User: Fold this.
Amino acid sequence: MPGKVLIIVGDGGESYETLYANHRLKEDGFTPVVAAPSKRSLHLVIHDFEPGWDTYVERIGYRMDADITFAEVDVRDYMAVILIGGRSPEYLRNDPKVISLVRAFDEAGKGLFALCHGVQIVAAAGLAKGRRVTCYEHVRWEVVAGGGKYEDSESVRDGNLISARTWQDHPGFYREVMSWLRERSGSEARK
Assistant:
C-alpha cells in the first residue's frame, strides 16, 4: 500500500517544484506531507530562465500550507523525503533539526530525493560524500566540496539518493522517484 512522503520546504522554496511534488505523489496514491520551520502558509517563489540572464530570475510564486513542523516529524512514519529547491535550502541547511532528519532518512535506507538547490541540504548533512549527484549547475561546487561526484544529467540515482538539476528535469526525476517508491511499497499504482 502506498505510504507517506515528507516534503521539506520553507519560504523561498520553488513553487512549481513544491506543487508538482504534492500533486505527483497524490496522483499515484502516496500521501505527501509538507514540513516547514512553522505550520503556516509558506511564501514560495518561481525561478525561471530568461534570455540574456546569466542565472535564473525570481518572481513571487504560489503559497502552500505546511502540514507540520520539522519538530513534529517522525521519520518512521515516512517512506522518503523530497528536498525542494529554490532559496529555502540555503537557510534550511543551517537548521540542526533538518540535518538530523535528512541523516535519519538516509541511515534508515529511506528515499532521499533532492531537486535543484535541495542538494545543498544533502551536502550540508555530509551525505554527498562518495555519491553520484546532480543539481542546479551553480551549486555543484557544494556537492564536489562535500566529496560528491557531480554529474550533469537530467536525473541521477545512487542507491536511495535520487537527484535532479531543476524543475525542467521533472519527467526523468519523477520516473526514478516513482519507480523507487513503487518498489518499496509493493504498489501496483499507475505507471
